[in-house]
Amino acid sequence: MIKPHSSTSKTAYSLVIAYRDRDVTLVRRCLESIQNQSFKNFELIFVDYGSHSAQQEAVKVLCNQDERFRYIFTNTCGMYWNKSRALNLAFSQSRSEVVVVVDVDLILPKNFLESVRQEFDPKYILNYKVYYLSKSFKNYEYLEKKASKLRNYLPKSDIYANGTIVISKQVFGEIRGYDEYYRIWGLEDTDLIDRCEAKGVTRQIMDREDTVVFHQWHPHSNLDMPQGWDAVSHHYFENKKKQSLAQLNELKIQSSTHQILSLKERPALHIFEKPEKSTGSWFQFGYPKVETLLGFMQRFMALGTGEYVYVKQRFEFFRQSDLSRLAGIVRFLNRLLSLTPISYRLVDIQSYDTEYIGLPEIRDFIFYFILHFEQDHILDYYLEVRNNELDFVVVKR
Which of 247, 249, 256, 373 has minimal CB crowding within 10 Å? Predict the structure, then answer.
């Protein structure tokens, strides 16, 4: 085990990683490349943002192999992945004035921090480029030796890959960190760069032939993006870009208190784990759609502080054969109606009365409900979706 530097020696760099439930093999390679840095005066803040227990234990073992590595588990189980919030927590725990943001699927060359020392100026943001290994690449033991050759033909990160940065803690504080409005997947990296540039802190690129950073291949994550979220997040981002510097300074950036959460601070998770010992308001989504969605919101807003709504629901799928006879009758009657001056169609009434509300619609509704109410009205929530079943506990602030 590598011994830490003495407390009198100021840490030169804080490397920060945000993580949840990723392939442990990728993590191991990443951490080994950090551990093997030729420049030794650094720390790693590894924030585990609510992984399942198996990944928690495996990653914790890896982090414990080096005393410069600090593994922080924040119990966000059942919450949406929020890279911004995880990184803000990591920054708040860092001890250096210079912070390096590292993705958990990267492999850093041994001289990476040495090159950062030569290239980084605290008046700027340093954006280091990465090269993408293919799925077929297996020779990781020879990666360092083959780096220059691989660099000549591997695809590299483009101008929009803004997540791999080196930034001074002072600048990060002045722009108030990452905007936690973005979640699951968003534009948090580009948003941060834009706010820096609005303050006159421009970006420099590090893409050195002797310092090749590799991105390990992995399957695309199954993020279950809510319908419309890509457009909503882009609209939010574009609106911020139109703000003047003064307006940006006044803008309410969504951020948390950077608290490390335990089960004690998660009443919704506690309720989910022990529902038989909890008394609260239970709710089932039904139909018509608009009425049931409004009904849920009214139920929630009527709660007192600390009270909760619990949704535990199984969503069944209609078989087409069950509705075929009714649908045939409706189509026949509508053909008759089409021969008259009457513009109304029975299908409108039938759709309203037997309207089916499915799991994807409820899942998306819950996402946007949390997005808009979390800051001011939600104390805690827990969401779990399994096959066609949903558990959702939300506690009023």
Answer: 247
